[in-house]
TrEMBL record, chain A:
Residues 291-407 form the ABC3 transporter permease C-terminal domain. This is ABC transporter permease. The chain crosses the membrane at residues 21-45, 286-311, 331-357, 377-397. Signal peptide: none annotated.
From TrEMBL, chain B:
Belongs to the ABC transporter superfamily. SUPFAM superfamilies: P-loop containing nucleoside triphosphate hydrolases. InterPro entries: AAA+_ATPase (IPR003593), ABC_transporter-like_ATP-bd (IPR003439), ABC_transporter-like_CS (IPR017871), MacB-like_ATP-bd (IPR017911), P-loop_NTPase (IPR027417). Gene3D superfamilies: P-loop containing nucleotide triphosphate hydrolases. This is ABC transporter ATP-binding protein. It comes from Psychroflexus lacisalsi. Pfam families: ABC_tran. Residues 9-240 form the ABC transporter domain. PANTHER family: CELL DIVISION ATP-BINDING PROTEIN FTSE (PTHR42798:SF6), LIPOPROTEIN-RELEASING SYSTEM ATP-BINDING PROTEIN LOLD (PTHR42798). The keyword Glycoprotein does not apply.
Amino acid sequence: MFSLERWQEIFETISKNKLRTFLTGFSVGSGIFILVILLGVSVGFQNGIENQFQGDAENIINIYPGETSIEYQGFNEGRRIQLKNDDFDLITKGISNEIEFSSSMYQIFAGLITYKNESGSYRVEGVMPDYQFLEKADIIEGRFINANDLKVSEKYVVIGNRVKKDLFKNGSPIGKQIKISGLNFKVIGVYTDPGGDREEGRVYVPLSTAQIVFGAGTDIRSMGFTLPKEDNYDLALKESSAFAAKIEQLLKKKLQIAPLDESAINISNNIENTKEIYLLISAMRVFFWGVGIATLLAGIIGVSNIMLIIVKERTKEIGIRKALGAEPLSIVAMILHESIFVTAISGLLGLIFGLILLEVVGPYIELDFIRNPSVNFNIAVSTLVLLIAAGAIAGFFPAWRGAKIKPIDALRDE
Amino acid sequence: MYSNTTMMIEIKDLHKSYKMGKNSLHVLKGINFNVKEGELVAIMGSSGSGKSTLLNILGMLDEADEGSYTLDGVPIKNLNEKLAAQYRNKFLGFIFQSFNLINYKSALDNVALPLYYQGMKRAERMERSMAYLEKVGLAKWASHKPNELSGGQKQRVAIARALASDPKVLLADELTGALDSTTSYEIMDLIQQINDEGRTILVVTHEEDIAHMTKRIVNLKDGVIIDDKFVNQVRAIQNV
């Protein structure tokens, strides 16, 4: 395999049969290219579907307080529960390792917002940086609230796309001052929300700022959490229910609520509404794997066919070589060496072009159902290796048969 | 004088038949003949006489059903593919009617091919092939592909290729069959020169004039030798 003489012979053959080399290489290369693109699109499709169907993170758990319904530890029933910053800290510090994103919120449902002569009434929410992911808000200009804004209670605001259209028409709002309940806030970002107009008609300010501005002290109105995503719906449901139960228990103990009280702490677990989405995504995954495997199979069959044709085309040459003293094994080695070399190089090129295309064009694709197509590099490389191996095995049998042809028959082949 | 000369080819009672469906076609029906070193022999016969089959068996491209074949003292029997390939490379040079050059290789690379299979290094291979191309008068055409050469030139390349591995015997199958008569005589002149240097050559032909340019004519008919005689060699150069 590593004899220099053989390599010279192979390079000569390859370079002097440019059309054949090109056709073999092109079909293998384009096959890999298409496969990479297909795998990428399938990932993009999955991203798109997940995004389309979800206004909020599909596994969000929201907690908001109510009134007690059972008297307990000297407190009457009918007591209003008020959550505070330290209740949130209790949960995030106590079971932080299970949490993916978390935020507590303080909101005013109708805040008057004005910019120059335009004004409107919008929901104002004091939130933490993670809220962006809980709400699936996509920043289209500027940035979202960050940890520092929260720490120093900046008077910054991130506005929804609808608010921007109402107040700023077509101009850019970034850096402009708007008035919320008479106080100046600087616009630092604009977001869109897959939840649509209703959810884009909100503005977000740092939680600490909201608490100061609206005189809330350390009060919070609600908290939201997500857990790391599970592939399987049943498992996700189980984890999420266990997590909700744990929060409930922690809060009830701290706030002195009867363990059986059902109205004091309200927990809405969004995952219970998302069974269909989980099913759709897993069905889609099966579908795209099926398509991928079928494409791969078609690629393997294609390579095998090319190998067969190459050996057929070279029958006479094989006969000549054998008459001149080529041993059968050297014929097999010559054909396989050449084909594996061509397949590997062109497959690699197809792979690289596919990956480059996905990397360069992928992030710009924002169709309704396709978002950020990308491909797992390991899967792409194993596909290439599989295709080369399949090509070699598929090529071996015709090559072996070619080497077995009696030279006299091969020479008669016109 | 005869006893001093090596026996190059010895064939005893050679039989060969081909199966054609249910029928068996008996092509060679007991061939006996010997060739000494340095002979130039023509094997003649009409088509179907078995002359090509005989040549293929001599060339180890085909196997006999019965009988013995000894080449330069080596019994050619029960060869596996690998050994047959090695013997072909070492003992024999082939010249075909249709030239059988590899069309994507240059004249020089075609000549060098048997040497590649001998495991000779590239530089030496090229040097030696060039010397043989010079011998057949085609040194200037070394880098040309077969489709850029005339029929006569192609056959000269094929002859250089057959000589390159310095074989014991040259086997030529209708080597002038695809050429006009002037070119044929030029090729035969080259063959005679090579024979003059002592190389043993067997030529299969059905053309009387070509046969008479050899030193001995063996006539085949219906799978047996009907006539085997030495002739006065006509020098091809006289006809050119």
